[in-house]
């Protein structure tokens, strides 16, 4: 059989590649001969993926709840994947950064838009029953979302807004982490003690969070942008992409959670506690937290009114629907 020139060229290139690495091309070719053809279901581990939606109750809508949260965690993984590429890229140009931030915004837009699956896609009575089997687990315990925040901005920007002005980059990471905003959401309002949800979360992830914060200290997305040359930094499309990312994560995403909480946990002037004991009315509103990854990209007035228009719209809409 005659070997086509383009095939021979590739064989010679492969032989050179493996020779340089001390490997034997013939062994790799044998492997190709013995290997079976790859299938879609094997490549994506479909059987394993579809076996992970294990419900704890007999209520059908619990499968929706589990599936949606698992999908969200997969998107969080993709978001972290893009964040790391931005951070690790040497001297990125505007086109590279705009493309990456557009990806980040696309992921969060999909997550936000798809939250209708949670808000409108489950029966309230079913949810209020099957949720009791989830205690004390809570979406509050999404470690990947906390990692997204740590990769995005220094810990001093994540300190609870009521005391944020008392902290700076000069504080230790441990001190900043101890005062991070989301811990306030895991405090029992009656006793002032940490909820079991928060204690479990801290025990499982504190060491990892601090390791990431230490490894990326001075290298977050916040710092990456500030270190750009003015010719890149002043690109209006890049600024817009960063502002959109900030608003998507710190305004739009928590607001969608508020919408779900009001639908399922707020009825006839009665507020039902979240599964993990999170004081969600104090924790979720972006205007209460005023978290911003890139505060230098917003005016003082914008930061002062952070999320208020969105929150007022949400509250008014919920009142009309009640």
TrEMBL record:
Gene3D superfamilies, per the entry: 1.20.58.480
Domain of life: Bacteria
A Pfam family recorded for this sequence: Trp_dioxygenase
Molecular function via GO: heme binding; L-tryptophan 2,3-dioxygenase activity; metal ion binding
Entry keywords, A to Z: Dioxygenase, Oxidoreductase
Signal peptide start-end: none
InterPro entries per record: Trp/Indoleamine_2_3_dOase-like, Trp_2_3_dOase
Keyword hit for Metal-binding: no
GO term, biological process aspect, one: L-tryptophan catabolic process to acetyl-CoA
Protein's UniProt name: Tryptophan 2,3-dioxygenase
Organism whose genome encodes this protein: Salegentibacter salarius
Lineage: Bacteria, Pseudomonadati, Bacteroidota, Flavobacteriia, Flavobacteriales
